[in-house]
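Z., the sequence and structure:
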Amino acid sequence: MKHQINRIRHDLVRRSLVVRRVENVTPNMLRLTLAGDELAGFTSLAPDDHIKIMVPGEAERRDYTPRRFDTAKNELLIDFALHEAGPVTDWARRARPGDVAQISGPRGSAVVPDDFDWWLLIGDETALPAIGRRIEELSAETPVTSLVAIAGPGEEQTFRTQSTHHAIWVHRLATRSDDPEPLLEALKSFKPPFGDGFIWIAAETTVTRALRAYVSGAMCHPSEWLKASGYWVKGKADASEK
């Protein structure tokens, strides 16, 4: 069936890995490369999968996107948006090669087929790992537009992809991360291409709600071809809304 979204469950496995590399993709996007024999059998089938990262010696854990899994090198890349300090973010800031990292998951994957005529990916800094992975994994010449709110030009990223990618960067102060207006204004200028499109949204919860309402209402986009998630809630630790 065309545009059939498949939901796949995975065995929940806890893995102890080692930090192999630490690098900054941008000043406020930190990337850790994890490796280890316990990555054997690791599976992530969708760009917006989530794994739990646990702070060694503490009970704190948070959801993060597997940015890339390189089976040849046996490496798992995780990007951390340094927009708000938290226990896992603080651990990632201090991480050095050789440190131990504990992860579990993903618990499941919602696999959206690559048979849509076009894609629109909307989000903020926290959504960039999933957005970047989706752009990189889309098939050749698939039209995809990314609409992302970031703190400034220095936070813009580039992606290697065979798709036909058009990036729209919305620069706004980090203090306005829960204000939907910057992204809404940019979204109102978007002209959907011909055919069936899939729209994916992830940002602070207030922003996601406003964007979803506009896509469903003013744009009349089919709800079954829309996924919107509140990745975080301003002022609340470890809070999200699907």
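The longest helix spans residues 205-216. The longest strand covers residues 14-26.

Let me know what you think.
H.
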